[in-house]
Amino acid sequence: MNGIGVKYFIITIASIFLALGIGIVIGFSLNSEKFVQKQFQQQLNIIDKNLVALKKENDRLSKEIDEYKNQIVQKDKINNALVSAYLKIGKTESAVSLIITSTDYSYNDLIDFLRKNGIKINKVIKIKSSFLNIEKTEKELSVDFSDYKFPDDAIKDIAIYSVFDIRSDLVKKLVEKRYIEENRLLSGISDTIILAGGNTAQNNNFNKLDRKIVEFLNDIDSLNVIGLQQSYSEINYCEYYKSMGLSTVDNVDEVSGRVSLIELIRGNSGNYGTKKEATSILPTNFINVEDAKKALEKRRASLLVELEKYQNATLPTQ
């Protein structure tokens, strides 16, 4: 065999092996593609089955949610009916004033609730955030407030005004300069004072304001003083109120809290709500109508005696 024949033979052998290699690669690729397609189709079938199952589960859960919503609506109707029945039976003739010390939360809904349900509100006094900084911000302090000690004199006059309807010149100035807001709905003595507190962490002014108000109000014999807040208040003012001997409601934004508040206005006592200072969510014993009337009469008689002390004081009034 000459050199050309050997070269041809080698090239032929190499071509055969190359063709076999290419055939193997092509065959493997075709088989792999079919394998991948088969696996992909199987996964699609599994996903499709899961989607069908998920849709069924979603439909079931949607029906359950609708059922729960209907139950909530029905419970709300029942609760409202029970509250309405309670308010008719436990209607009180108490006269109430609200002192709102919270600068972060509104109590307009509560005020509307009380008025709609026949609670006599004499006045609403809201102490604004600027009140505690009056000495720092009032440029005319030496002229308008030079005869007063802040905040003690102001707190004392606000408390007297809320209870006995004695409106001093100092209270007038505080209103005029918008350190406090007042809504004077009715005149006369208030036998119950509601302190509406609760604030965010950065506005915890209990010791600066609420404590001083409570200390003064506690000195008025037989006065019914109630401390309250909303359930979402960051600072639990009711824990502080309770430590000073007040009856409290820490969830007055809820139906149960409002029932508890009405019961405290009627003359009951206790600490109610959902936070740690509360002993129960609602009073376990509701005061009857006759006992509520007797408690109110006793409070009013005592407050008339207390009124004489302040009428004889040297408070300028309007």
From TrEMBL:
Protein's GO biological process: copper ion homeostasis
InterPro entries given in the database record: MctB
Origin: domain of life: Bacteria
A UniProt-annotated Pfam family: MctB
A GO cellular-component term linked to this record: membrane
Keywords, alphabetical: Coiled coil, Membrane, Transmembrane, Transmembrane helix
Coiled coil: 37-78
Transmembrane segments: 6-30
Record-given protein name: Copper transporter
